[in-house]
Design goal:
Number of strands: 5
Strand order of the largest sheet: 3-2-1-4-5
Distance between the termini: 39 Å
Radius of gyration: 19 Å
CATH topology: Rossmann fold
Number of domains: 1
Bound molecules: magnesium ion
Mean pLDDT: 94
Oligomer: single chain
Number of helices: 4
Shape: elongated
Helix content: 25-40%
CATH architecture: 3-Layer(aba) Sandwich
Order of helices and strands: EHEHHEEEH
CATH class: Alpha Beta
Largest sheet: 5 strands, parallel
Length: 166
């Protein structure tokens, strides 16, 4: 089953679109998430080209994997919340949103939301939120794999029991 991760930008990966401080552990988090997810997208209220420029700046500081800023997809944002149906995945896919703002979570999609504390002043350098969230994403991948195995076993034809053998 597909695992897709949608990432917020401001307050989640960086401070904000003005100061653009990368959150501690950003590069490792993105590398780890690219490994575990089938697709990683950005889902931000910062308008497309500006958001990509910010990512490029951060990548130039070696705080993102090389090539990420240029390659990552941006989900078009409209409305008041981040409706994950805009990510464009089949219903069978697990789509997660990593976001610091509860108000951005689309009604009915709380189960898809991984909350992360807002990265805000004084921008602690011992902030471990991205490391914590990265581990959660790996755990969800394990759960998805396990669910796949259980579903396969459940669909296998049960072996009939011969009462004479008992
Ligand atoms: Mg945010």
């Amino acid at each position: 089953m597909r695992l897709v991760v949608a990432l917020d930008l401001e307050g989640t990966l960086i401070s904000n679109a003005v100061s653009a401080f990368p959150r501690p552990g950003l590069k490792q988090f993105v590398e780890s998430t690219l490994k575990v997810a089938d697709r990683v997208v950005m889902f931000t209220t910062v308008r497309g080209e500006r958001a990509r420029e910010l990512l490029q700046l951060i990548e130039n500081e070696d705080c993102l994997p090389a090539g990420f800023a240029a390659a990552v997809e941006f989900v078009p944002y409209s409305g008041k919340t981040k409706d994950l149906s805009a990510v464009g995945e089949p219903a069978s896919a697990t789509v997660l949103l990593v976001d610091d703002q509860p108000s951005m979570v689309h009604p009915g999609q709380d189960a898809n939301w991984i909350p992360i504390a807002e990265f805000m002043p004084p921008f602690e350098q011992n902030d471990h939120e991205l490391e914590r969230v990265g581990k959660i994403i790996w755990e969800i991948r394990d759960d998805i794999k396990l669910a796949g195995i259980i579903n396969r076993r459940a669909s296998e034809t049960p072996v009939p029991i011969n009462l004479d053998d008992l």
